[in-house]
Amino acid sequence: MATEKKVKIVEKLQETFSKSRVGIITDYRGLTTSELNEIRRKLREARVEYRVVKNSLARMAAKNAGLEHAAATFTGPVAVALGYGEEPPVARILTDYIRTSKSTLTIKGGFLPGRTLSPKDVEALAKLPSRERLLVQVLTRMKSPVYGLVYVLAGPLRGLTGVLQARIKQMEGA
Fold first, then answer.
1. Using CA atoms, how far apart are residues 106 and 133, in angstroms rounded to an integer?
2. What is the largest CA-CA distance in the chain?
3. Can you say how many angstroms the Cα of residue 155 is from the centroid of all Cα atoms in its chain?
4. 109 in Cβ contact with 26 (< 8 Å)
5. 29 with 84: CB under 8 angstroms?
6. Where are the beta strands (DSSP E) in the chain?
7. Which CATH number fits the domain 4-128, given the four candidates 3.40.50.10330, 2.40.240.50, 3.30.360.10, 3.30.70.1730?
8. Chain Cα centroid distance, residue 66
């Protein structure tokens, strides 16, 4: 039987799942309160929400938000890191924390709109460069052929200039 309080929790979770661009699901068993607070602080600095959720309510909210594919990931004691901006920083913060602190925190998976992420997918997501860096790489690669074309087209003019300068020197010396 659904109580009014549970209905409101599901509605709130559904709203946050719908608004988020990425969700990373973690198993927080074995963490102390101070470790949990430290993770929350680091995530909050990146404008990421980290909350412990009740599985049955999270599954209902995920299904209502159109994330049926992610609903199965909510098993055992879990917390969800919800990011509303770029996806890689959320995964990067969690994987860096696990690596540097030797924490018992484990990543169970995650979700993007329309896609479920395995723990390996989350690690791959963490290794992606930022959006700005990717744009710079793409633009650099787009400019490279243009620079090559300009260099090739300017070659005959450079050759002609060299010949004319040599001829001028030859005529001045004679």
1. 28
2. 108
3. 44
4. no
5. no
6. 22-27, 48-53, 78-83, 106-112, 115-117
7. 3.30.70.1730
8. 21
Distance CA 108, CA 151 (A): 52
pLDDT digits (tens, 9 = 90+) for 132-158: 888 888 888 888 888 888 888 888 888
Output the pLDDT for position 1: 44
Q: How far apart are CA 127 and CA 60, in angstroms?
A: 31
In the block, residue with structure tokens 């680091």: 42
What backbone phi and psi angles, to 5 degrees, belong to 13? -65, -40
- pTM of the shown model: 0.70
Averaged pLDDT score across all residues of the chain: 83
CB 104 within 8 A of CB 30: yes
Burial of 40 (0-12, 13-18, 19+ CB in 10 A): middle
Q: Which residues contact 69 (CB under 8 A, 6 or more apart)?
A: 111, 114, 115, 116
Residue 131 identity = R
Q: Which residues of 65-76 are buried (b: 16+ CB within 10 A; e: fewer)?
A: bebeebbebbee
Tokens describing residue 94: 């969690």
